[in-house]
Amino acid sequence: MSYDPQSGGNTEPTGGSTEPTGSGGTQPTGGGYTQPTGGGQPTQPVGGYTPPPGGGYTPPPPTPPTGGYTPPTPPPGGGYGGYGAPPPPPPTGGPERPAGGPNVNVGNMGTINQASLQDLFQSYMNALTKPNVSTYEGEIHKASWLKVLIGVTAVAIIGFIVRLIFAGAAMSSLSTLQTQLNNSNVNFDTSAFAGGVGVGGAFVGLIGTYITFFLGAGLLWLMARMFGGTGSDFMTHSYLLSISYTPLRIIASILSIIPVVGGIIGFAATLYQLYSAGLAMQASQRMQPGRAQLAAFLPMLVGIVLICLCAVLAVFGLAAAFSGTSTR
């Protein structure tokens, strides 16, 4: 208690300390510090910061790469310091080879390799087994002088070999004749004649194959123009003719070794070749079917007529000669 002179009496303090009521103390009623009542830790104020239990934040470990090479990430802004991206790693295998084997370049006539030879052989088979205009139209984009020469050269070589075989057979027959002449005391050497004619004829046929093909192609070209053909160039025209000419002439040359049968098959192959030539001109010269076939067969028909006329004239000439001889 204290004495208040203004009030005239004793006044109980309102904001002072009080006696503890227990072992922990009692908070004064007028403010100030409050002693905990249970003897424990001080009570924290409500709404303050609570630190995380057990320490600070631990970030998760980085995810390892799943495998393979991970290219570096370019810096922001693009580029690698003005030098561009690094070059790609070199290939692990050997040098890459072109498909179809090595190419053989023959000047402006084109290139040839194993794949193109197989494709050319397939073109021959299509011309033999699929004789229609669509077959030849599908071959137009493949045309080249090199493929034409390959086909004609194959015919020339096969024909040369067959002629040599015929020359050998002829020499064998003439040797028998030479023996008979020697026994008859006739001095005539047939071996030199047979060898010169047989081998010489084989070489003439080798060169003549190129001449006859290109002369025939030129004649058919003119015939196609006469009958209204307005198509592709002479190279395409020759190529489409060659894809039927090559296999048919090879077959006819090989089978000509067989007597009689070879001749019949050769004539049939010639007719089939002319029919195929009409299909080829129908595709390359954009002709009507009837006109194309007429342009293909007309030269042979004219040739047959001329041969028949020559034969008739020869018969009349011989008849006139024999009749004049008999009257004398």
- How much strand? under 5%
The whole-number mean of residue pLDDT values reads 75
**Which blocks of ≥5 consecutive residues have pLDDT under 50?**
1-34
Largest sheet, spatial ordering of strands: 1-2
Question: Which of globular, elongated, flat, extended, rod-shaped describes the shape?
Answer: elongated
Helix amount, in percent?
55-70%
Order of helices and strands: EEEEHHHHHHH
- Profile the largest sheet: 2 strands, antiparallel
Structural class: mainly alpha
Distance between the termini: 198 Å
Number of helices, counting only DSSP H or I runs of 4 residues or more: 7
Our Rg estimate from Cα atoms comes to 55 Å
Secondary structure: number of strands: 4
Structure description:
- This protein is mostly helical and 328 residues long.
- It contains seven helices and four strands.
- 55% of the residues lie in helices and 3% in strands.
- A two-stranded antiparallel ribbon has the order 1-2. A two-stranded antiparallel sheet has the order 3-4.
- Strand 3 (104-105) and strand 4 form a beta hairpin.
- Helix 1 (114-129) packs across helix 5 (234-255), helix 3 runs antiparallel to helix 4 (190-226) and helix 4 crosses helix 7.
- The protein is elongated.
